């Protein structure tokens, strides 16, 4: 008997396995270690014993951090999706200036978030470039950096992630939107009708996937919120880092509890995005 060859999905899985197995092993070991530490089964000091004391001790800051992290991620992802979609539409248009605009926007992708945060801080601070350019007195400049609304943090994430969204969506539209759009135009569809019934449905899966990636990344990112945000309240990554680096070893289980909570939220977002993608695929 001749051996059966794997199908397209099987071949794709075999190609991904060499990279997937080490990642799953490392991340899985880290999550198991954090879970044991947060539940008191692998304490740094004292006797091991199943306990939820770490979650109870961090409950107050944890609740505030969840709301703040979700708010920052939602706001920055929403802005990034809108701006990224507009950039993708411009980049795939048959206009040289629009393509140049898309190429310039994509240049922000290689810039590290830490460098972007420093640039946004220098731009939006009360004595920054924008305030000096507009001639506004620092005392009357709104607190965009370290302020109550976390404007600088949201602006940095939205700026960086919009380029990522534009790149992902433009890659899909560049290969499929032109032919479908021409067919719709021949059938009498106007510009707005082609955008609504052709371009947006084609871009929806890629847009949703990019939005989920951006949301999860923003939810777990530390450096931008630590550099541009307020000292209190703290987003989940900043809270976890502060507890983990505390001189009090008893705070390590709390840091693990915060990290596991962040991971659980990220997994819920990923599952919701996968469910939405399946629903989109079923409707098409």
Number of domains: 1
**Beta fraction of the residues?**
under 5%
Largest sheet: none
Helix run count = 11
Q: State the order of secondary-structure elements, H for helix, E for strand.
A: HHHHHHHHHHH
Return the average pLDDT rounded to an integer. 85
Polypeptide structure, described:
It is flat and about 75 Å long. With 284 residues, the protein is an all-alpha fold. The model has no long low-confidence stretch (mean pLDDT 85). The chain has one domain: MetI-like (MetI-like fold, Orthogonal Bundle).
Give the gist of this structure:
The chain has 284 residues and is mostly helical. It has one domain (53-121, 150-283): Orthogonal Bundle (MetI-like fold), CATH 1.10.3720.10.
Which short descriptors sum up this protein?
284 residues; mainly alpha; MetI-like fold; 0% strand
List the helices and strands and how they pair.
Elements: H1 8-38, H2 53-57, H3 59-91, H4 96-106, H5 113-124, H6 129-134, H7 151-186, H8 191-220, H9 223-228, H10 236-244, H11 252-283
